[in-house]
Amino acid sequence: MTETSWTRKDLLALEDLSKEEIELILKTAESFKEVSAREVKKVPALRGKSIANLFFEASTRTRTSFEVAAKRLSADTINFSSSGSSTSKGESLSDTAKNIEAMQVDTIVMRHSSSGSAEYLSKVVKAGVINAGDGIHEHPTQGLLDIFTIKEKKKNITGLKVCLIGDILHSRVARSNIWGLTKLGAKVTVCGPPTLIPRGIEKLGVSVEYDVDKAIKDQDVLNILRIQLERQAGAFFPSIREYAAEYGISVDRMKKAKSDVIIMHPGPINRGVELAAEVADGANSVILEQVTNGIAVRMAVLFLTTMVER
Q1: 201/167 same-domain check
Q2: What domain range is 155 assigned to?
Q3: Pairing mode, strands 50-55 and 76-81
Q4: Which of 302, 295, 298, 309 shows the shortest CA–CA distance to 75?
Q5: Is the pLDDT of residue 2 over 50?
Q6: 180 and 65 in one domain?
Q7: Within this chain, do residues 89 and 131 fall inside the same structural domain, yes or no?
Q8: How many structural domains does the chain have?
Q9: Is the dihedral of CA 26, 184, 178, 267 positive or negative?
Q10: Exposed/middle/buried for 207, CB within 10 Å: 0-12, 13-18, 19+?
Q11: Do 274 and 170 sit in the same domain of this protein?
C-alpha cells in the first residue's frame, strides 16, 4: 500500500480502518519521527494549510501534541476551547464548526464528550475531521501511538500478548487499542472489576480476565488505563483504596510479570491507584516514549488526511 492509497479526509475510528491503512499510518509516522530529532524540528509538508483544534473537554497531552504536530508540519493552527466561546451561549456544534470552516480551515481536530460527535461533524463540514476522543467511543490517535510504541519496542505486533487493565467500560482508549491491535494480529486480554468490563466485549476478539495476578503472567505489554471517575455515574467499586489493592500494578505485582514486559499508560496517571510511582518511572515503563511518539503519529494523521483532495 502506497501513500497515494490513503483516500480518507477523516480519521474517526480505528474500527473503520483496514489493517493496511493502519500500517500506512505507522509507516508514515516512522518517517516523521526523525523530524523531531533534528535541530530544526520542522518540514514544509503542510505549509499553507490550516488546522483547527476544537476541544470541548479538558486535555493537555492530546491538544498540545496535535498543536506541536501541526506546527512541525508548517501548518497554521487555530486553538478553540468551549469555555468562553459561543457554544456556552447556546450555539450548536454544527454552527460552530461551519463558522470555523468559513475561515478556510482544512482540517478540524475535535474532542467532545458525546460519542459519535466526530462522525456527525464529518457529515456537516467539507473540512477533514480527526477524532481526538468522542465520549466513550474511540480515541484513534491514542490507539495508534500506543501501537506505534509497542511495535517500536517489540518489533512485531502479530502474536504479541497485550493486556488492557482498568476501566474498560468507560475507556475510548481501550476500544481503539482493541480494534487496532486485533486487526494487526495481537492477542488482547482485558482485565478489571466485573462492573467495569462491558458485557459481550469478547465479540471484539478479546479475552476477559478478572484476576489481575493471572492476567499479567506471560503478557508482553501491560497497558494500564485510568479510572475515569468523571464518567462514572454510580459506584463501580467499593473504594479507591480497594481498587488499588485488587487491580493496581505495584512493585510486588510486577514480580509476577515477564522481565521484559513493557508498561504503558495513556495518562494522566493516578499514581498509587492504578499504577505505583516506582512502576510508572521504572525501567519497564515507556509512558514518556508514548508522549514522544504521539507527535509523530499525529503528524502522520494530519499529513495523510489534510492532503486528500476534497
Answers
A1: yes
A2: 141-288
A3: parallel
A4: 302
A5: no
A6: no
A7: yes
A8: 2
A9: negative
A10: middle
A11: yes
